[in-house]
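Folding Task

Wanted — backbone structure
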Amino acid sequence: MKNIGFRAHDFGTFPTVDALAEAIRAVRTPTCIQLAIGKVLKPSRPWKEWDEEYVSSICGRLRDNGISVAVVGCYINPVHPDPDCRREHLARFRHSLELSRAFSCPIVGTETGSWTNDISYNIETYTDKVFSVLLRSVEEMVRAAEENDAVCALEAVSYHHTVCSVERMAKVLETFPSDHLKVIYDPVNLIPVNGIMELDGSWPARPSAEAQRRFYIQSLDAYQDRICAIHCKDYVLDDRGFKIGNKSALTGVFDWENFFKELGKRSIDVPILLENHDPATDRQTLSVLEKF
């Protein structure tokens, strides 16, 4: 059986961990989740007040309900243009790594940000200067992961993030060959804004299975055993031909069936986390994905 779980805050926000667990158990148990405490539990302590007892109490209650943490979500901007803010973001990431044993999960994940305060598009993001800032931040993050026997997991996002392509992620992985640096692979995140191109140069609303295979094979070849988790969602093109990439899995045009078959051929067995999922239809989604 595939290890398919959920991004916890897609279930909503909850006043207690028991209420969160109840919502997840209503769909599936045992299961795994990506947990961002501040997004899913409100109120929750500010991150600077997290300690082992606090985190352990949350994750212990989840485990009592058959729910394990597969990824700790700590999405920061490691290239924030303000050095003081950047240091604050990196401190938050380090703190999550330091608490990885309390989470009972070594993997702490983030995207790679942009040269803006709110991680919006900025053409400067793609400059060598900003990429160098990213490498310095990743160096600090990987060192902290090594010190805590944890894993710094990076997620690429096309168009407006510093790591916006397979090639850029491959360069980061080559720069830091540490076992403590891994990849959260979200294939939909890496699809260009105008979709997946066919060999004839066209950009159809529903690309062929072969075009999609060429697309994701590039990532799988580049990342290989550095993948530690996979995000599972979907996309469509709007009337202008631009990607809408926040659809629930199986509600768009991504070829999850053949993608899963390729994972099987390569013996890639990592948590697969539904993102932007709809709890009301999760059971049906899971029943289909399990057959692939």
